[in-house]
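Let's study today's protein:

:::
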Amino acid sequence: MLAMQFHPGQVLTLLNAQQQRVGELTVEGREGDLVLGTFVPGPVFSEMQPLFRAFEKAAEAQALSVVDELDAAIATLHLRLAGPGGAPPVDIHDVQIWSDGGISLRLARDTSIPVNGAAAGGQSARPVQE
């Protein structure tokens, strides 16, 4: 059971594997394990931003094999969410940060999920525009 609750307007911190602040997520909504929100970059996001931009371009081009490769690369960042009040960080996967400031991610039910989009079937949480 997750110790952290997720509700609209809540501000969470996105952390990398080294517990560095990647940015802040303001929750806009939640549907099951899918969390949607807005993202404000933090100090270390610039290091990983090219990876997310490449993912976005591949998703827009519907280059599914490239999306899968980039999805796996994003998973190696081992991103987690931390909330206020010192609750332990929550494992996440299928993290997608878009150039318009949108973010989507899935809450991990099982911390052994090896690939960013594995539980979601590698599908983007954001609809691809034609």
